[in-house]
Amino acid sequence: MIKVLVIGGGFAGCCATHLLSDMGYSVTLVEKGSLLGGGCRTFFYGGHPYTYGPRHFLTKDEKLFDFLNKYVPMRRIPDHEFLTYIERDPGFYNFPIHRDDIDLMPDRDQILSELNQLDEDKVQSAKNLEEFWLLSVGSTLYSKFVESYSKKMWKIESNTELTEFSFTTKGVALKTGATKAAWTEAISAFPVKINGYDDYFDISTEKAEVHLNTTIEAYDIENYSVKINGEWFKYDIIINTISPDIVLNNVFGELRWIGREFFKIVLPVPEVLPPKIYFLYYANDEPFTRIVEYKKFYNYEASSTLIGLEIPSLKNKLYPYPTTKDRELAKKYLDILPDRVFSIGRAGSYRYLDIAPIIQQCMELVSQLKE
Ligand SMILES: Cc1cc2nc3c(=O)[nH]c(=O)nc-3n(C[C@H](O)[C@H](O)[C@H](O)COP(=O)(O)OP(=O)(O)OC[C@H]3O[C@@H](n4cnc5c(N)ncnc54)[C@H](O)[C@@H]3O)c2cc1C
Q: What are the residue ranges spanned by the domains of the chain?
């Protein structure tokens, strides 16, 4: 029987384990924490369910939605909207930036004059995040919505450092039209059950040998071997979902990451954000980037509400840096992986991947192995 090692038990590790176990492979999953699910695990605070960050499911691909929905029944939430607080106006505006909101801004005339001078054709030539936004919306909107947010998000001095990115994570720089919903084309959904995605982490690993609270002591990836509790084990296939520099013994130096500190606040009101608002971004010099009202995702009923607040931090590895230098270093690692060693998931790929593309990656991996 083909022996597979999966390193890391987050969404990527669990999904890979699931699909490879179904192919009849013998899968061993090693997770350093005490629970499976990584960042998508549901925890509880004063009865309130929450994850670290929003973790709602987004995809344009029905196939990926159907896949997950089969194991974790999902509720579609098509109409949620994002707001950004702009302290200097002061005001709350839609994000992505909406054309109608410009009429509410004190510097409306200046913004409109800048928008009139833009040349859409030049946007494609942008070489970094700052250039992209200046060319897309002009300097006033850039400085209100993007400049400080991005600098605090990545802990950088200048947004010109960010060179490799889908420069608008929300798909569009300036929105027009009647809908203010954040996602008009994608399916937006969240699990129905109070424990979120957690059932999937059990279902996906039921045929596998799972080692929780386990750290690999040494890696010899070239020989498909790892050392656990003093003993070497050899596999036919290795699926890595953690930062590739770790499994390749840092031979080219450490990859850079940004993480998050996460704070929970319970407030004595049934709901604090307006009905369609699930997230609120803070675009200026507040130390935090975003707050999330969790009961809206979970449909949780209580007389109080839980807010999660995220502060950029170097304490954990959650967001790979979108710069040419960092991506090239990651590529050096990924390029030296031997055949039958795959590095997937957000950390494993060193790419800003969400849940749906991670499931897609696991499906592609299986197709590749079947060839
Ligand atoms: C704050 C935040 C909010 C997000 N919100 C959304 C969202 O709303 N929608 C969406 O689609 N996506 C969202 N994402 C992205 C998505 O949740 C992640 O891309 C996805 O969960 C990553 O899964 P993963 O398995 O690659 O990584 P992780 O979930 O990070 O799992 C990695 C696992 O590996 C384990 N591990 C680490 N080191 C080792 C080691 N040395 N040995 C063994 N195990 C190890 C960890 O404990 C963890 O369990 C968000 C991401 C963040 C950071």
A: 3-41+197-250+322-370, 81-175
The rounded distance, in Å, linking the Cα atoms of 216 and 230 is 9
pLDDT tens for 63-76 read: 999 999 999 999 99
Q: Which fold would CATH assign to domain 3-41+197-250+322-370?
A: Rossmann fold (3.40.50)
Residue nearest to atom 1 of ligand 1 (CA): 53
Q: Which residues line ligand 1 (CB under 6 A)?
A: 7-13, 30-33, 38-40, 52-58, 215-216, 241-242, 246, 260, 318, 345-347, 353-356, 358
User: Given the CA of residue 30, which atom of ligand 1 is nearest to it?
Assistant: 43
Strand 3-7 versus strand 237-240 pairing type: parallel
pLDDT in tens, 136-158: 999 999 999 999 999 999 999 99
* pTM for this entry: 0.95
C-alpha–C-alpha distance, residues 32 and 38, integer Å: 10
33 Cα nearest atom in ligand 1: 47
